[in-house]
Amino acid sequence: MKVSLSRIAHGRSGDKGDICNIGVIAYDARHYPLLVREVTAQRVKTFFGDFVKGKVERFELPNLAALNFLLYEALDGGGTLSLRIDAQGKTMSAALLRIEIEVSESELAL
Amino acid sequence: MIRIANGQGFWGDWLEAPVRLIEQGPIDYLILDYLAEVTMSILQKQKKKDPTLGYARDFPPLIARVERLLRDRNVKVIANAGGVNPIACAREIRRVAPSLKVAVVLGDDVFPRLDEFLAAGHPMRNMDTGAALSTIRDRIHSANAYLGAFPLAEALATGADVVVTGRCADAALALAPMVHRFGWKADEWDKLASGIVAGHIVECGAQSTGGNCQVDWQSIPDLANIGYPIVEADPDGSFSITKHPGTGGRVSSNIIKEQLLYEIGDPKNYLTPDCAADFTTIQLKDNGPDRVRVTGVRGGPRPEMLKLSISYADGWKSIGTLVYSAPQALEKAQAADRIVRARLEQLGLRFDEIYTEFFGVNACHGPVAVPNPNPAEVQLRIGVRGPDRNAVDRFTRELIPLVLSGPPTATGYGEGRPPVREIVAYWPAMIPRELVPAKVEVVE
Known about the structure:
The complex is a heterodimer of chains A (110) and B (444). Chain A is α+β, with helices and mostly antiparallel strands.
């Protein structure tokens, strides 16, 4: 079945120049493998589409049951150059948490 | 064990936070982070106009306000409030709080030395684009190296009550008291990395105590009186994160995880002037109410190069807005956007970029925003940027006429024309660390 990523994870996002970073964290460490399987760099890149011009990189932090994404050329130039209201990418994690992931009921059950 | 509290996540953060940290419970060190990347260029401009300025002007009045408390409770302060003029900042503190001993850390400001570095064959290429610094040499406002914790520890060793620095790594502010009090050596990478992780957790102030937190945010108590974070650091490098009892907010491992992941790159290699920290080794444990224990942090050698933060003028920009009400609020705003663009085109004005957002529909999340098919109102927000100030200025006159000459029900123009602002861009670069020696001075 499909569930919103926000059901099993929370996050925080910010900037480094024109790179936006999004941390995605499983509420329960037992759901971490689902994050690893479902929330791939490609999935994130596809979700944001044109909003993110560059590549997406993913890093794994199993100790925190978390993933860190770097979204390149994601902030219209970033910093003082950007003309976006969210030039620092503060709200990007909230957007990503809306994606739907494919999981079975037994995988969700804790 | 020593207690290190952070009372300022950026210049402009809550003015009451540092005072409450001193008043509401025991702390040994109060650290305050004032400097964002663009702050240095603003301060450099201020110093150019008046050589006694160029530092965070909120800081000396704060110290004057808490002078007596600092003495009575034996709290030492470490702040990067010095900006591009730490000596002037220290003198002002001595003037308004004469009973306190003040030390400064100097050496980060390399603005006067850039030509010397270039002549010696250091290109200071942009770390993101690879471009050579010479391409923007005549437009540079400021240049500062990120210093580490050891000069700050040296400043604490003078017995200073207040240590004022210019640019240093944010997390070094928290590491410095640990180096000073625990006598950590420059190659004890695991301990240093642990101190850096502590610094990273608290450097954004209340973001580690329940502010800007997505975990069940409505249940977080009393954000109006949120407690700012406190590190309880042990000599072996392990530490706890907590806040004063009775304050608002929350400290939990979920919240600490959010902050650990905030504005990082490769988690295995978090680089600082003092060490590399491996965030994949961090172990967290909820350890009582509003208390998280952090252990296991591993580190590696410090880099040979220090990071430089260089700011430079990169053209002009302006962002203007108009509001349209329902019905058809979005359609009206979209029509107005087309009219403005057509008029700019007819004037032959060239910009590097024209960027439009429809507030209430897609401003924060662009094409992935939650659909909002019939908004009560939409704010049209158009921004332009480019090298020609006159073109940007002309743009600022092209929005308000639409109130009479564009689609119906335009409002929200009460502020008049939007201002034209100079773009101060950020140029990250590297320089060999031996070229940037730090110096500590006690200011009488």
